[in-house]
Design goal:
222 residues, alpha+beta, 3 helices
């Protein structure tokens, strides 16, 4: 698992010695002592994402480098849940939802991102386990987390996600070894439950005083 700290719109998931598998702009396998979720301001249009991530981490006083997810959602809506050695932290925004099928009625490109850029809403998810997983098992855990994310969001919003969702899953190489990580395993089952709970809580916070869009065309950046 990891410990979380939020400063100046930056959430750090501190996990010394962890190995991460990350989707998104700079994804892949990486060994890092922390991973991050960073809230970007309204109107943000930077394209030098690596430099921007470094600037934000430094300004918030975080010295460890690591994979960084970006979102338009304020970190006050970040929510976490943990179960049986797994912790999940989520931020939920639905301003640029993605729908299936992509063009249900032949009139609109339902899955396209809006003109405001790819970080206007975003559902970001950080998941960490205290088990030691191989690269293959970590990839399986990523699939389990994404599946749980899509199912939960479908139930909450009618959408399976947004056009810019990102997920990072981390393992502790010195932890108890787990050969498998599918949904029928302890680590996979705990991941599904933690992801669902974190998403539900973040969603409730983000939409406490408003409603998520009912259709892609009604969304802020749909």
């Amino acid at each position: 698992m990891f410990e979380t700290t939020i400063r100046e719109g930056v959430l750090q998931a501190s996990a010394p010695g962890a190995r991460w598998l990350v989707t998104g702009w700079n994804g892949g396998y990486v060994d890092a002592d922390a991973a991050y979720n960073v809230a970007v301001p309204e109107g943000w249009n930077r394209t030098d994402l690596g430099a921007y991530a470094t600037e934000r981490r430094s300004a918030a006083g975080f010295d460890d480098s690591g994979p960084t997810l970006l979102t338009g959602v304020d970190m006050k809506h970040a929510a976490g849940a943990e179960l049986d050695g797994v912790r999940a932290v989520a931020t939920v925004g639905i301003s640029n939802p993605a729908a299936l099928p992509l063009d249900p009625d032949g009139t609109e490109p339902a899955g396209l991102v809006g003109a405001d850029g790819p970080e206007t809403g975003t559902v970001n998810l950080l998941v960490g386990t205290d088990r030691s997983l191989s690269n293959g098992a970590l990839a399986t855990l990523l699939a389990v987390a994404v599946e749980a994310k899509a199912a939960t969001l479908q139930q909450l919003t009618g959408f399976s996600g947004t056009t810019s969702d990102a997920v990072a899953v981390g393992t502790a190489p010195d932890g108890e070894e787990a050969t498998f990580a599918g949904s029928a395993t302890r680590v996979g089952d705990a991941t599904r439950a933690a992801v669902r709970a974190a998403l539900q809580t973040s969603f409730d916070s983000r939409f406490a005083e408003s409603e998520p869009p009912a259709t892609v065309s009604a969304a802020e950046a749909g």
